[in-house]
Amino acid sequence: MKRAPTRDILWLFLATRLLLIIITYFSYILLTQERYSGDPVAFNAFLNSWSQWDAKIYVRIAQFGYQSPYDLAFFPLFSLLIAIPGHILGPWSYLPLGMLISNAALLGSLFILYYLAADVGGDQVAHRTILYLCIFPTALFFFTAYNESLFLLLSSGTLLALRRQRWWLAGVLGLLAALTRSAGIMLAAPYLYELWLARERIMVTKRFFLFSALPILLIPTGMLLYSIYCWSRTGNFLAFVSVQAHWARQTSWPWQGFVQTIFELFWHQPFGSFNQVHILIDTTATVTFIILAIVGRKKIRPTYTLWISLLLTSILISSSIGQRDPFISNRRFVLEMFPAFITLAMLTVSRPRLHQALLWIFPALLATLSLLFVMGKWMV
Are 185 and 219 within 8 A, CB to CB? Predict the structure, then answer.
């Protein structure tokens, strides 16, 4: 397999990190300081502006452990990776470490996604796939202490290992993904599908079959380990499921979120309300990625279509029916659906005007949403 262009990927990574730093500098100063003020802003104020919403929770869990049963909704691996060096370096280090891990995981993901996209559509598609991912309007969550980039790294790494038939590596990465997000357990389905595709090769001998098939057991083991921990804390193996209602999530029919969205947009919410804008953002992200999944089903590897279908199903059946925005956070969850970015890249190869439009629209929206995030607006 052809090597990824390290220099191009590093430049893309650094350029987009610099963009977010510039946004933080100008937006935080201009929106928090008095007019014509000559007082400087402390460096830690810039850093702490990225400690919002879930980032605070992951950092708090890393520093103090699971203090509330409701915290169990947040799977442990990301906070654990912060905690290991954080306990050595001290309290000041937890947020910087979380951001460092998140950005390092993104960098690793870019290399993996380049290989996966190039395998499907060639170098041009691969370049555009990682470009769109980095400038996507909600790519800000790859910059702060959220676990999106870690899950993307582990899930895409699992699928790359499956593509290369590195079964044990896929099992280990799947285990880690299942310790990062509950959706990680669904990697067992792509694993089974790849086993089926490789059945003639792996069933040559019983030993080789067992060597290829047994690692799939590692994937649910990740969730099993966390379930045992939940049981030790609360007496409930599925405490991470039980507390979802506290975070306004509940099991629902896939269409319920759309029905509520239509009602909110066209009946309940007045034009120009804060809720209306948020509902539009999350609904647009949800519908767009459903369309990309449908369009891409004949363009990309079936394993990737299976994976994005599972991810979409999981967010549709766990909508926040109890809130005004049933698709809340979907703008963030779609970041993990890398097959859609490959499909989008393939579509723009023959549509240069669409590509040019995305190069203007995506960064503008990224800057806007990043500004809202650092100012503590409702952008979860």
Answer: yes
* Tokens of residue 236, six digits: 């409930």
Angle of CA points 292, 294, 296, to nearest 5°: 65
Task: Report yes or no: 187 and 177 within 8 Å, Cβ to Cβ.
Answer: yes
Model pLDDT for residues 203-244, shown as the tens digit of each residue: 888 999 999 999 999 999 999 999 999 999 999 999 999 999
Tens of pLDDT, residue by residue over 6-53, are 999 999 999 999 999 999 999 999 999 888 888 888 889 999 999 999
Between CA 272 and CA 19 the distance in angstroms is: 29
**Length of the chain, in residues:** 380
| Alpha helix (H) residue ranges in the chain | 6-32, 43-48, 54-64, 77-89, 94-121, 123-135, 148-163, 167-178, 188-197, 199-202, 206-213, 218-234, 239-242, 256-263, 274-295, 302-316, 330-333, 338-349, 352-374
pTM over 0.85: yes
- Residue among 317, 369, 350 nearest 142 (CA): 369
Domain ranges of the chain: 1-146+350-375, 148-246, 248-343
Other beta carbons within 10 angstroms of residue 59's beta carbon come to 23
- DSSP code at position 42: P
Determine the 3-state secondary structure of 211 from DSSP. helix
Looking at residue 350, its amino acid is S
Between the two ends of the chain, the Cα-to-Cα distance in Å is 38
Backbone torsion region of residue 90, taken as left when φ is above 0, otherwise alpha when ψ lies between -120 and 50, otherwise beta: left
Region for residue 236 given its phi and psi (left: phi exceeds 0; alpha: psi -120 to 50; beta: otherwise): beta
